[in-house]
Write a structure and sequence with these properties.
With 157 residues, the protein is mainly beta. It has one domain: Jelly Rolls (Sandwich), CATH 2.60.120.10. Strand 1 and strand 2 form a beta hairpin. The longest helix has 11 residues. It is globular and about 40 Å long. The model has no long low-confidence stretch (mean pLDDT 94). This is Cupin. InterPro entries: Cupin_2 (IPR013096), QDO-like (IPR053146), RmlC-like_jellyroll (IPR014710), RmlC_Cupin_sf (IPR011051).
C-alpha cells in the first residue's frame, strides 16, 4: 500500500492497485485512522444487486459519510430507510442507528468515510472471516467498544 503520512498534515495517497480488497463483503480498504493521523477512516464498497452491506449499528464517537458513486444504496438512518442514488451524499451523525445494502434491483458502489477516524480495517477483515465461515458473528460482540461499532435492533430494517 502506498501511504504517505510522514507528519500529522501530510497527504495520504492510496493507489487503487494497492488497496486491500475483501471480496466476501465487497469492500476495498483505503485508509485507516492510523494512516490519517486519526482524521478519518475510508473504504469503498461495491455491492452486488441486492447485497447486504452492514447490519444496524451505531458509532458513539464518529460520523459516517456515504457518497454513492454508482447504483442505488438503501440506508437505514434512525427509523427511516433512505434510497440514495449515483451522486448522492449522506452523513450519519454519531449515535444514530444506521445500516446499508444495495437496493434489490441494483448494484451499489459507494465511498464510506468515518470521521474522526476509527481503526476499522481489522473489524472489516473479521466481518469477511465471518462471511467465509471462519468465525462467528459473536466474535464481534466483545469488540464493539474497540471499533466503536455498537449493534442495534431495528424494527424497520
Amino acid at each position: 500500500m502506498s501511504v504517505f503520512a510522514a507528519s500529522p498534515h501530510a497527504p495520504v495517497v492510496v493507489r487503487a492497485s494497492d488497496a486491500e480488497q475483501l471480496p466476501e463483503i465487497g469492500h476495498r480498504l483505503l485508509a485507516d485512522a492510523s494512516a490519517s493521523n486519526g482524521a478519518l477512516s475510508a473504504h469503498r464498497i461495491q455491492l452486488a444487486r441486492g447485497a447486504d452491506g452492514a447490519v444496524p449499528h451505531q458509532h458513539n464517537h464518529s460520523s459516517e459519510l456515504f457518497f454513492v458513486i454508482d447504483g442505488t444504496l438503501e440506508l437505514l438512518v434512525g427509523t427511516e430507510i433512505i434510497t440514495a442514488g449515483s451522486g448522492d451524499f449522506l452523513v450519519v451523525p454519531p449515535r444514530c442507528d444506521h445500516a446499508f445494502r444495495a437496493e434489490p434491483n441494483s448494484t451499489a458502489d459507494a465511498l464510506i468515510v468515518i470521521t474522526p477516524g476509527i481503526e476499522r480495517f481489522e473489524y472489516l477483515r473479521q466481518v469477511a472471516r465471518i462471511r467465509r465461515g471462519e468465525a462467528s458473528r459473536d466474535s464481534l460482540l466483545t469488540e464493539q467498544n474497540r471499533y466503536d461499532t455498537h449493534f442495534v435492533t431495528s424494527p424497520v430494517w
